[in-house]
Amino acid sequence: MYSRKAMYKRKYLATKSRIEKKKKLLVTVTKLVGRDKNGGTRVVKLCEILRHYPTEDGCSTHRTHQKFVIATSTKVDISKVKISKYLTDANFKKTELQKPRHQEAEIFDTEKEKIEISEQRKIDQKAVALQILPKIKTVSQL
């Protein structure tokens, strides 16, 4: 069928050793929004990264939503800070209050339950504050 040998020639490649690379998980994706005139881009978060939330200014161990944080290039060295073993992600979860079950007499006399902070959490807060506040005060911009 093929008169010339060089016209049809399959190339055989030797199999290369494959090294499995770890796939990087995409944290954000930019998507186009709108059209030509009023269009733009929007950054969409794909997943929440655990334990990488910013904390409030000062030394509070409360978590702050990331849309309220202003990103700066100021850095504070907290490498020598010792954190207790009780400060975990489970410690920052909010406890849900139980809704009162209404009965005939209790409809109008409902009192709201108050969230009580445990003594262990207060001790941890003081320990973290004593270590981090002097390091924050050394930075002139904070």
Automatic annotation (TrEMBL):
GO terms for molecular function: RNA binding; structural constituent of ribosome. Keywords: Ribonucleoprotein, Ribosomal protein. One of its GO terms (biological process) is ribosomal large subunit assembly. SUPFAM superfamilies: Translation proteins SH3-like domain. One of its GO terms (cellular component) is cytosolic large ribosomal subunit. Residues 1-31 form the Large ribosomal subunit protein uL6 N-terminal domain. It holds the Pfam family Ribosomal_L6e_N. InterPro entries: 60S_ribosomal_eL6, Ribosomal_uL6_N, Translation_prot_SH3-like_sf. Component of the large ribosomal subunit. The ribosome is a large ribonucleoprotein complex responsible for the synthesis of proteins in the cell. Component of the large ribosomal subunit. May bind IPO9 with low affinity. This is 60S ribosomal protein L6. It comes from Tupaia chinensis. The lineage of its organism: Eukaryota, Metazoa, Chordata, Craniata, Vertebrata.
